[in-house]
Amino acid sequence: MMAVRSCLGVKFGVSGLLSQLTSSTRHHGSRPCVSPILTPQHRNTSSSSTSSKVKVDLDQNTGVAVMHMQSPPVNSLSLDFITELCISLEKLEMDKGCRGLIITSSQPKVFSAGLDILEMYGKSPERCGEFWKSVQELWLKLYSSNMVTIAAVNGSSPAGGCLMALTCDYRIMADNPAYSIGLNETQLGIVAPFWFKDTLMNTIGLRNSEMALQLGLLYKPQDALKVGLVDQVVPEDQVLPAAVKSVNKWLAVPEHARQITKSMMRKSTIDRLTSNREADIQNFVSFITRESIQKSLRGYMELLKQKKA
Ligand SMILES: CC/C=C\CCC/C=C/C(=O)SCCNC(=O)CCNC(=O)[C@H](O)C(C)(C)COP(=O)(O)OP(=O)(O)OC[C@H]1O[C@@H](n2cnc3c(N)ncnc32)[C@H](O)[C@@H]1OP(=O)(O)O
């Protein structure tokens, strides 16, 4: 796993994405610019790949992959899980036959519980640094993806889970008031870093982000829809079919134009992290290893256990 992790550098420099797209590189040589719509008459050839925590089903006719997160109990983003996610994303990104990606959860009631708190509690500075680098890597891969990305949010999605959904082009959430989504970091006594904040602001605007972040708000699906944190709320059993329908719509747009537009919209946000990665890691490590922050995390974990008892 360590060896694989060290291979996880950004393969396609995100800062150069716009120019890569403009100069028509990997996606445009062999991928059609206008995509076929998913129709029943397509032959159903699909391939499936599974690592222990990530299952990917790719329909080769439609070019749409469904990535199922399956890291029990709550898809919390540990270093190992993030590494598997990054490897799967890298493979899909390089696969000319894959043009759309739906991300969903195999775990009941939870999309992702966000960053694994145990990765941030009682760990050495070196380990915290390695963990944070992987979190950056996952965000960069998702936010700069050339694929159409849809989050099929079929359960609660706090903090890092919400961030994953926010990196996608479109979010569909199950209409279940037991579920919530949001960047609730302040409720844990921690601070969402600037690139979490930027991703949220790019989606729901400055005023809503200010309230959401300071108060650490977790929104019920209908409230998330009102504020624009999700784009669609559908009955629970319709989340995946709705995601397939949406991916069709996005894939029907000429690919080259859509990719360049996506890159143009996201480039400055991506550049801000890529040019500050090391400082951001140092900032995280010095913040998270503070005794007062460790105490907050311990208190929060105890609260989670008490809620269960
Ligand atoms: C300078 C920058 C500094 C810092 C930036 C850091 C940014 C951090 C981002 C984050 O993502 S922090 C994580 C925030 N996550 C949460 O607040 C979610 C906490 N979890 C929940 O609210 C609930 O667990 C739930 C996701 C709603 C699911 O509820 P459910 O009732 O279904 O499960 P239960 O609570 O019983 O949990 C099962 C099991 O899982 C453990 N758990 C839950 N979440 C996490 C987590 N994020 N990390 C690690 N472990 C987690 C929970 O304790 C239970 O464990 P147990 O079975 O051993 O008791």
UniProtKB/TrEMBL annotation:
The organism's place on the tree of life at top rank: Eukaryota
Protein localization: Mitochondrion matrix
Keywords for this protein: Acetylation, Fatty acid metabolism, Isomerase, Lipid metabolism, Mitochondrion, Transit peptide
Disordered: region residues: 23-54
Any Pfam family the entry gives: ECH_1
UniProt catalytic activity: (3Z)-decenoyl-CoA = (2E)-decenoyl-CoA; (2E)-tetradecenoyl-CoA = (3Z)-tetradecenoyl-CoA; (3Z)-dodecenoyl-CoA = (2E)-dodecenoyl-CoA; a (3E)-enoyl-CoA = a 4-saturated (2E)-enoyl-CoA
Pathway: Lipid metabolism; fatty acid beta-oxidation
Main subcellular location: mitochondrion
EC number: 5.3.3.8
InterPro entries linked to this entry: ClpP/crotonase-like_dom_sf (IPR029045), Enoyl-CoA_hyd/isom_CS (IPR018376), Enoyl-CoA_hydra/iso (IPR001753)
UniProt GO BP: fatty acid beta-oxidation
Alphabetized Gene3D superfamilies for the sequence: 2-enoyl-CoA Hydratase, Chain A, domain 1, 6.10.250.170
EC class: isomerase
Similarity remark: Belongs to the enoyl-CoA hydratase/isomerase family.
Biological function: Key enzyme of fatty acid beta-oxidation. Able to isomerize both 3-cis (3Z) and 3-trans (3E) double bonds into the 2-trans (2E) form in a range of enoyl-CoA species, with a preference for (3Z)-enoyl-CoAs over (3E)-enoyl-CoAs. The catalytic efficiency of this enzyme is not affected by the fatty acyl chain length.
Name of the molecule in the record: Enoyl-CoA delta isomerase 1, mitochondrial
Lineage: Eukaryota, Metazoa, Chordata, Craniata, Vertebrata
Gene (name only): ECI1
